[in-house]
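Let us walk through a complete example step by step. Step one is to write down the protein sequence. Step two is to encode the small molecule, nicotinamide-adenine-dinucleotide, as a SMILES string so that its atoms and bonds are unambiguous. Step three, shown after the inputs, is the structure prediction itself.
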Amino acid sequence: MQKYILIIGACGQIGTELTMALREKHGNDHVIASDIREGNDNLMESGPFEILDATDYDALEEVIAYYEINEVYLMAAMLSATAEKFPMRAWNLNMNSLFNVLNLGKEKKIDKIFWPSSIAVFGPNTPKDHTPQNTIMEPSTVYGISKQSGERWCEYYFNKFDVDVRSIRYPGLISWKTMPGGGTTDYAVEIYHKALSDGAYTCFLKEDTALPMMFMDDAIRATLQLMEAEGNRIKVRSSYNLSGMSFTPSEMAQSVQGKLPNFKMSYAPDFRQAIADSWPSSIDDSNAQQDWGWKAEFDLKRTTEEMLANLKPD
Ligand SMILES: NC(=O)c1ccc[n+]([C@@H]2O[C@H](COP(=O)([O-])OP(=O)(O)OC[C@H]3O[C@@H](n4cnc5c(N)ncnc54)[C@H](O)[C@@H]3O)[C@@H](O)[C@H]2O)c1
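Step three: the predicted structure of the complex.
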């Protein structure tokens, strides 16, 4: 059977790179990008694109029937920092979009679903270091509550309705092709832009706030690997812990100074500090390693090299 893929929320930080990676793998015409807004030129010009609202079930059903879609990646969501400002909008978007896609799976209109969760599912009572796959989960943010609920529903739809839904708890993602979309780890991208443009950056988290992070290439590779794994290897049907690296803003500043010695970092923590304080410092991803062979490749040093090399003005 031919594979036709729909990416919902394709113009965001992850969706943009995921779309290009899937187009490279399956052919441009087999990967339909969609969003409520247009994306960058590369994305728009390389294959089919539809304006599509993830909360509109009928519109989703129509696009899926038209393109004979069998696999969906649902990347549309409101992220952690923005969700604290618009709690009900975040809840409605994050949950209704997921229910729409899960129900399309239940109706057997699609065969396979990817839905991303987050380290935000953990909360202040979770063990902070090497946070295990199964542990206390009492998220204290709107975003975290929506992701934890989403995980429960994914597992439920797999068990009750045999919906092949797969998920990863992404850490904070670092990338240079697209700017981040309103998360608590956005500082780890902004720092590189500001280091090159101004030689200085004011971080909105405290210098010693360690958080789990990952370079985008690793995140995309993990996503493709999980989706390609044989179904019987996927033992976790809520969402997999995934680890890349873990560092504090001050360690990140040192890493940038290794390449740009005059770079200066200052700190002015805002409301995002409380969100970061409720999250783990590092993640144990041994289930992902054992079940589908996951291994991260990028550490902080390599991430800094990649970011500065690609963002540097010509
Ligand atoms: N980026 C990270 O660090 C990170 C970490 C953990 C989890 N995640 C999760 O990964 C997914 C993608 O994150 P991202 O960083 O690419 O987010 P983003 O904010 O960069 O992109 C989200 C995209 O969804 C689109 N969108 C918003 N409302 C929509 C709607 N109603 N219908 C269709 N599209 C809509 C936006 O226009 C945007 O292009 C989200 O579920 C997010 O929670 C991201």
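Step four is interpretation. The chain has a mean pLDDT of 97.
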